[in-house]
Amino acid sequence: MKQLVQRLSQNRHLERSEYLRLLAGCDHELLKYINECARVVAMTYFGKAVYVRGLIELTNYCRNNCYYCGIRKANSNVARYRLEKEQVLECCRLGDSLRIRTFVLQGGEDSLLDDAFMQDLIKSIRRDYHHTAITLSLGERSKDSYQALYKAGANRYLLRHETANPQHYASLHPANMSPDNRKQCLRNLKQIGFQTGAGMMVGTPGQTLEHLVDDLLFLEEIKPHMIGLGPFIPQQDTPFAHEPSGSVEITLLLISILRLMFPKALIPATTALATLAKDGYERGILAGANVIMPNLLPIEYKTKYIIYDGKEAIHITPQEQYKDLKRRIESIRYYLSDSRGDYP
Ligand code: SAM
Question: What percentage of the chain's residues is helix, strand, coil (to nearest 5)?
């Protein structure tokens, strides 16, 4: 099995059956080995830097009804909010004071965040923080809309494909949501010039190892600049409330596989990973991740953006979270970088 890992390191690619063998046959010892290999590759390109993205969850209104997500439209237990422009700028001010050089504007698919609102917001952030990257994560929009947001000054876009397998996609989403459209959105974003992020949840109900191989092969096709993956975690008000969480170990294995496939990619150690494992951020970085995404929202709003239960760090302030992350990252002898951390 170690030979498979070495071949993946050299060729940055394996055949379908080999990816499957790696996923199915990975034991504790091999996980340790591949994590080390991935760490060495990340070190070659990024040294000990961990890039920081300040997350601003703009709205928890959403028109969609993804079966896994706590802010799905049909969840009437959510206290809905939408930040005013001035509140977003306040989050940016706080992020800037922490020397954070990427703001990620994320939210549900909220029709009031139309192009005019977003263009105005992006231009204001761009004007005040011209050295800071602006990342958007607002779901599926038309190509014209993406183009308009890019022109306004946004640099990057995160849109996880969630699962590349169409049948599995259909078991996680209602019939009005199309896996082909989501994939096309990713192609459009890349074509426009965004640094583009795709990715999947690990351990969603019904997911097989074959589905995960489909994800790896889809990512090979898309060649994203950023890859976000975290374990699925159930949320009590969703159709998947009683489903088990995804595996921390498989998530760490996939982070390492993806680092070997895409040496220069920006890969976060996600909040979902840190929610399931108390040392999730540290283990993610030591498996080859190189990005961390502290939340810049005031507690009042963080506690309303509950996409899954038990979400990490929602009851502490952004300053407290940043300090805690800094301590944790330094404890494994990495450091929080104050650069933009663009795709090299
Ligand atoms: N609406 C935007 C979109 O569709 O990309 C961004 C917001 S969406 C809530 C961000 C991500 O949260 C999704 O891409 C999904 O992978 C993740 N997510 C949602 N529910 C989750 C759950 N129960 N467990 C883990 N991750 C979840």
Answer: 45, 15, 40
Note the residue count of the chain: 344
Residues with CB under 6 A from ligand 1: 68-69, 106, 108-109, 137, 139, 159-160, 162, 201, 230, 232-233, 235, 272, 307-308
Q: How far is CA 140 from the centre of its chain?
A: 15
Phi, psi at 143, each rounded to 5°: -65, -35
Q: What angle do CA 114, 181, 214 make, to 5 degrees?
A: 135
Give me the average pLDDT of each 10-residue run along the chain (344 residues).
96 97 96 98 97 98 98 98 98 98 98 97 97 97 98 98 98 98 98 98 98 98 98 98 98 98 98 97 98 97 96 94 97 97 94
Q: Which residue's alpha carbon is nearest to atom 25 within ligand 1?
A: 232
Closest CA to 167 of 227, 117, 225, 208: 208
